[in-house]
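Section: Multi-chain targets

For targets with more than one molecule, the full set of components is provided together so that the structure can be written out for the assembly as a whole rather than chain by chain. Components appear in the order listed by the source. The example entry contains two components.
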Amino acid sequence: MTEKLHTFVDKLKAENGSWVVDVTDAHGEVTVTVPREAIVDVCRFLRDEHGFDLLADLCGADRGPEEDPRFEVNYHLFSTTHHNRLRLKVVLSEDDAHVATVTQIWRTADWHERETYDLVGVRFDGHPDLRRILLPSDFDGHALRKDYPLRGYEPYSLN
Amino acid sequence: MATAVENIRSTEVLDTALESQMTLSMGPQHPSTHGVLRLDLRLDGELVIKAIPDIGYLHTGMEKLFEYKKYQQGIVITDRMDYLNPLGNNLAYVMAAEKLLGLEIPERAQIVRVLMCELQRIASHMVWFGTSCLDMGAMTPFWFTFKEREKILNLIESASGGRMTPSYFRIGGLMMDLPAGFENRVKQFLENFPDALNTFDTLITGNPIWQNRTMGIGVISKEDAIDWGLTGPCLRGSGVDLDLRRDDPYTGYETYDFEVPTEPDGDVWSRFKVRMRELVESYKIVRQALERLKPGPIKADAPKVVLPDRDDMRKHMDSLIHHFLIVAEGFNVPPGEVYHAIEASKGELGVYMRSNGGPKPERVHFRGPSFVNLSALPVMSEGEMIADVVAIIGSLDIVLGEIDR
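Its structure, encoded as tokens over all components, is:
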């Protein structure tokens, strides 16, 4: 079912073996874990050479404060011509949570990266306008981190 | 000594060239911004030099909330995102969970899902049609389209009990089967709908004012549309022939006969035309789904995930236990991650769901089509007149509940 997706992984490996750290195949989806340093090159290669022209989604996830690496950024690529999907994943440690922006490859990454920065706290190097997008600019912390309490640090009260 | 007011009224002040540029804050309360969108507009006279969308006024923290709710409780949260297309949100969410669970959904449930989603798409497009006309000063279409939408909401209400928040789809199938007489009521709606479409066409499509307000306005090229991640009617309005129902099918959409309308120009008019033609295609799909509807189970055969029937609960101890456990403790979903995307009324609605094996998801992320479509607003509106910005926002069909999530 996912054989065609594995051909893209093989092409990635053939282009540069160090680009593919890990490959997971589950639920009909293929996930390629990519080293942080290579994400821009991998994205450009997949867009230019293999038709993954649409960045469908980009989102961050927090595995929890006890995990190392703690954060991950997931890139959901889609092709408007051959209609395949591929997920790229970059894992980041807590004390070094930054990755290069892909806004120069897909401009749609702009808001996705701002949202990930805002809610998870991953910084995107080279982003043209890395500001909070959903939360106020003076908001304290990153709300989607696992150690951020559901009701915030200072719950609303009538006092 | 002249007062300040006299100074302002004096011809000297009026004749002097003022600073030609100004900043205008449009929204967040203005009705044409469809909710709570604020636009920071830099203007030169009435010409838009720069447009910066400012969102987040509504931010409801839904993605955080999912992590604290059991899987089945998350369904009601999804209703409140794109509140004009709640059944689409339900579908994307439950299908992501079903993918993780490896559930197989009975045929009748799949057909009912298609039927309801297409009715919901028509209802969603009705709101878009009415409100975008209203934005541009045409009030009459609003009354006509909301009348049709009301009929669909009545149908949805009869099946699920909710009008705006139906939560009709459940992980593993449907909440309950369609009520008696539902099919006849849908047929009745379908009989009258072509006349309604003709009315909309007569009112708007041939109207020269409408054409002047939309043709050549807010143009985005095919390449830019893909680059900005546009999906749905906004992408198809730029000439890209892509529809997930056909190209990345789910719920058996590949077996239905329908066309994917595209328009080449990428302007407000093209997006309008695409949606108008989509209404006809949705109508066709609803007809086909009705013809296919045969009696059968509406829930998957998974007693540990799907609530048992009431009758079973009264007769069998096992069913009672399952019911109690599912409601009180939820069900465990195997560890893993999925991204499931559907073609919602506004474009690709994707759900990224991660499970660590417990009864609550570890992470749920919604890729809202309105969020992405809105990010391209500056490209479309820079260089246009300020009145055109209203037309462009209307043509994007945004819902802020989905943008701010």
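The CA atoms of residues 61 and 405 of chain B lie 6 Å apart.
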